[in-house]
Amino acid sequence: MYQQTVRMKRLLVVLCLLLSGFNSPGQDRHTVSGSVFEAGSVRPLVGVNVYVSDKTAGTTTDSSGFFALTLPAQDSLTLVFSAVGYATVQMTVPFQSDQLVRIELSGGQLLNEVTVRAVGPEAISRRVQMSQIQLSASQLNKIPALLGEKDVLRTLQLLPGVQKGSEGNTGIYVRGGGPDQNLILLDDALVYNAGHLLGFFSAFNGSVIRNVELTKGGFPARFGGRLSSVIELNLKDGNREKLRGEASVGLVASRLVLEGPLGRNRPGRQPASFLLAGRRTYIDLLTRPFTAPNRPDALQTNTYFYDLNARLSAPLGPDDQVSLSGFRSGDAFVNRPGTDNNPLQGQLNWQNNLGTLRWQHRYSDQASFTLSLLFTDYKLNVENEGVGRRDTASLRYRLRYRSGIRDAGLKYAFELEQNRHQLRFGIQTTHHRFTPGAAVTAGNTAPGPNTRFFIDALETGLYAEDTWQPTGRWRINGGFRLSHFLLLQSGMLSADGNPASQVEYPAQRSGGPVQYLRPEPRLSVAYQLAPDFSLKLSYAQMNQYAHLLSNNGLGLPADLWIPTTGRIRPQQARQVAVGLAWDFTRSWSVTLEGYHKKLQNLISYAEGTNFLTAEPATDAQQWEKNITTGRGWSYGSELFVQKKTGKLTGWVGYTLAWTWWQFPALNGGRRFFPRYDRRHDASVVGIYELKPGLTVSGTWVYGTGQALTLPVSRFSGYENRPASAVGSGSPQQQLFGPAPNVREYGERNGFRAEAYHRLDLGCQFRKKRKTVTRTWEIGVYNLYNRRNPFYYSLEGKDQGPGRHSKTVLYKFSLFPVVPSVSYTLQF
Question: What is the C-alpha separation between 685 and 168, in angstroms, rounded?
Fold first, then answer.
């Protein structure tokens, strides 16, 4: 009994010592807190750096613009407020008691600020987080873009560690990861397809984006579900002082933004605000004269895209804020024959529907929570139909792809600041409904019923993390995330979306339901070697339960999303990164990072297989049997040099990287390069203010050619052709027929395309009169007309009578020199 009492006393002493790290007795401490707003619009600013002038302590504002710092008492305290795209502000306050302040940051010095940078000059060397860069939407408007459409994803491609896809594509490939391994969040709602026009433009309207933050490594524990990156986009709050608007006209699309207050400003209470925005292309209107709809032999086409944004923000009191945001985007490609011909016809369309309802409550200056209801609905539909000539009209085929994900989720996040600790913990749970499917109908077989196969699953993540500054030199962020994935049910959906029948899961485990429980430790450490020079180290383990099944690795909209099952295990990545950060002058900074990432349970089609099944399918999950799994490695180094102030701003980025994949069932079990492996990737960005209202900018990019699989020979034989099967007989005979031009392929991705490089230039003329600002922008994409490869094809070339055809490799390019002009009116 005595020994137990002694052990209990010792335990109490240890607990008191641990708790003493959160509360240091014997020294008075006070809290300075407040909110940071944008001058002129009274929008709360998120991610603003707030730090003591001697850089001994600091923090950032939350999503409502609030901050709090608890420090030892002193006569006065000088605080510095800095944010991307805003003038830095210093404030000195008496600090012998708790203080409450209100700060407004002006964007008047925007042209002199950094175009893209981490969250402040001090953050590069002194912040614990590494592999992270933040952009403001106003900075995106200075970067030259394809056809004048400002694009946040295309700007991210200019950063080290972020590689491009094919020509003109906004696909994001981060540190050897695929396009499905990026966690893209718009106001916390997950975006599954972030592209317009087959990926040539992103689905995000830059006029309504408040800020964008990219994290490539050292992921905090609050993020999970993807392996390679986190891309956070937040919509602006509406102007709370007066009605404002923006209208823009470009070569391919126009947009309109309206924002303003709902009610009047009252002392001590701000009004609610709204923001509405829309963008639509007029490609269908421009091409309509060429399709000649009144001609019986004309091909009818209809191509367009659009996106809509809405946000409502309302304060419920001094400590409560509610916001409701929504996003909808759509793309359509329709191809129909005229009345006198009968070629292949079909359509491709997809939609994104997102919604976020968020409640933020502040208990005190040190404690707050955020509760969010999240909704995502992504739908893809592809249909192709071919019919023979009139004398053989009974011969036909029909190809149908359908893919969709509908998510409904709940997210709770709690934050507590105590002394030198910033604690965060929370939980997020999401109900997924996957509806993948692809089938072909051949010959006289009638199309099957309009049903879809579905799989319901539940994904949950529980996390806790602490950002701790034990001394002036050390900063540590440690965290732990526990992720859980559970398959609930599967079956068939009728045309109205209701379950039509239950299907026994072929991969069901005999001992119970299919589920996975995975721990995910995280750690980031920064050590200050000198006042403006630091060494950083990070480790992160991630798991991914949703997979993008692709035939080509391009990340096109026609690729299909599928869940983790009993046969398809969760993808997993372990990444270690080390880096140096140096702010060697007030204007210049350099970061150098190296990383190594190991990937497990990657998926791909097995050799000679695809998603298609003959309809009606006898096995609703035939696609599972056609998938093979493997592993991968990615490692490399990244250099980022920035100039942040002055008339000339910009950066130089360079990446040296290797990515390998290895699948037992692919390439004879030998490892190979995935399509998006690039050895060298470089970018140069420059922005120069000639005079107020006149800015010129340019970007130059270079990248090693992509790894491709190309045929090495051609011969006559037989092949499986489900998309062109016609005739009568059994389905097996319809899907197998003679082919005079069969290709034999060599090593997987054994061919390296030509290097990619181009130069873009832009010039902006801005003129402001009273409350109206007019901006003309002229740009040139691919100035020196580089014929970058889009794809290659091995074809036969006729050598004349009596001679065998010659096999030739053709290179096809997409964009030559592309000029653009746009006009924007802000009122």
Answer: 18
pLDDT higher than threshold 50 for residue 471: yes
CA separation for the pair 248, 147 (Å, rounded): 13
Contact 608, 725 (CB under 8 A): no
Residue with tokens 């130089």: 652
Q: Identify the domain containing residue 184 by its residue range.
A: 121-232
Beta bridge partners of 209: 235
Please indicate, yes or no, if residue 219 is contained in any of the structural domains.
Answer: yes
- Residue 208 placed within a domain: yes
Q: Is 512 left (phi over 0), alpha (psi -120 to 50) or beta?
A: left
Q: Residue type at 291?
A: T
Q: Would 187 be classed as within a structural domain?
A: yes
d(CA 743, CA 146) in angstroms, rounded, equals: 36
Q: Indicate the Cα dihedral angle 311, 316, 318, 324, nearest 10°.
A: -20
CATH number at residue 197: 2.170.130.10
Cis peptide before 616 (omega within 30 of 0): yes
Tokens at 27, concatenated: 């020294």
Q: What percent of the chain has pLDDT over 90?
A: 35
Is residue 646 within 8 Å of 587, Cβ to Cβ?
yes
pLDDT over threshold 70, residue 256: yes
Task: Compute the distance between CA of residue 624 and CA of residue 399 in angstroms, rounded to an integer.
Answer: 19
Split into its structural domains, the chain has a count of 1
pLDDT confidence band for 497 (50 / 70 / 90) = low
173 located within any domain: yes
Tell me the per-residue pLDDT of 303-317, one tens digit each, with 9 for 90 and over. Answer: 888 999 999 999 888
pLDDT-wise least confident of 283-297, 772-786, 789-803 = 283-297
Average pLDDT in the chain: 80
Q: How far apart are the first and last CA of the chain?
A: 80
CB 676 within 8 A of CB 162: no
Residue from 522, 523, 507, 517 nearest 545 by CA: 517
Q: For position 119, what pLDDT does the model report?
A: 39
User: 401 to each of 102, 255, 345, 346, 499, how far by Cα in Å?
Assistant: 54, 31, 14, 11, 19
Q: Cβ neighbours of residue 453 under 8 Å, at least 6 residues apart? A: 435, 436, 437, 490, 491, 492, 493, 503, 620, 621
Rounded Cα distance between 57 and 73, Å, is 14
Question: Residue 554: pLDDT above 50?
Answer: no
Residue 112: alpha-carbon gap to chain centroid:
28
Contact 372, 410 (CB under 8 A): yes
Please name the residues in contact with 15: beta carbons below 8 A apart, sequence gap of 6 or more: none
pTM: 0.82
